[in-house]
Amino acid sequence: MICPSCSHDNIEGADRCEECMTSLLNLDVPQAGSEGMASSVMEDDISQLDQEFLGVSPDASAIEVIGKMKAAGVGCALVLEDSKLVGIFTERDILNKLTGKNARPDNTNVRELMSVNPEVLSERDSVAIAVNKMSIGRYRHIPVRKADGSYSVTSIKHVLKYIAKAEW
Questions:
Q1: Which of 52, 44, 46, 48 is CA-nearest to residue 153?
Q2: Rounded to 5 degrees, what angle do the CA atoms 52, 154, 148 make?
Q3: What's phi and psi for 91, nearest 5 deg?
Q4: Environment class of residue 53 by beta-carbon count within 10 Å: exposed (0-12), middle (13-18) or buried (19+)?
Q5: Measured in Å, how far apart are the chain's first and last C-alpha atoms?
Q6: For the purposes of burial, counting CB atoms within 10 Å of the CB of 114, is it exposed (0-12), middle (13-18) or buried (19 or more)?
Q7: Residues 6 or more apart in contact with residue 55 via CB below 8 angstroms
Q8: For 38-90, how does the pLDDT look when each residue is reduced to its tens digit (9 = 90+)?
Q9: What is the C-alpha separation between 47 and 127, in angstroms, rounded?
Q10: What distance in Å separates the CA atoms of residue 72 and residue 5, rounded to the nearest whole number?
């Protein structure tokens, strides 16, 4: 690791420069630069991403919600009860819970199939936080709570679209 003060080549992982004793802590932690994609991803907030919304009742039938998802061209529905987010119903829930040997009947309510208490981001969280949460949690969709208390959803599709539009 090269010391930013004296340019001495130190052993990787050293806390201080062997030559001038300058702290080398956090030099290997990625920092947002002054320009380019790394800066955008680390500094731009989720409000810069496209977002979508389909809200459904927990008592709606899965087949009804699947029809609404298909018509809206979205991969998930937020399950709201009295304007409070109680779950998310995704394509993965459909594949894992409505098909195969453990399949439930078509008239099953979304409440029985949804993923409960989904992780929610604030629209002021950075794009980098969204990507990190999606990666760690293995989510393709993540709810976003807006400043006015309403919800939307952003997805990996929206992140990739944002990156593709970014000016390098």
A1: 52
A2: 70
A3: -55, -35
A4: middle
A5: 27
A6: buried
A7: 77, 78, 79, 80, 151
A8: 557 777 888 888 899 999 999 999 999 999 999 999 999 999 999 899 999 99
A9: 9
A10: 56
Q: Which of 153, 141, 142, 67 is nearest to 110 (CA)?
A: 67
Give 50-54 contacts, CB < 8 A, sequence gap 24+: 50/154, 50/158, 50/161, 50/162, 51/144, 51/152, 51/153, 51/154, 51/158, 52/152, 52/153, 52/155, 53/78, 53/150, 53/151, 53/152, 53/153, 54/78, 54/153
Q: Report H helices in 53-125.
A: 62-72, 91-97
* 92-100: long-range pairs with CB below 8 Å, 24+: 92/140, 94/62, 94/66, 98/62
**Would you say the pTM of this structure is higher than 0.70?**
yes
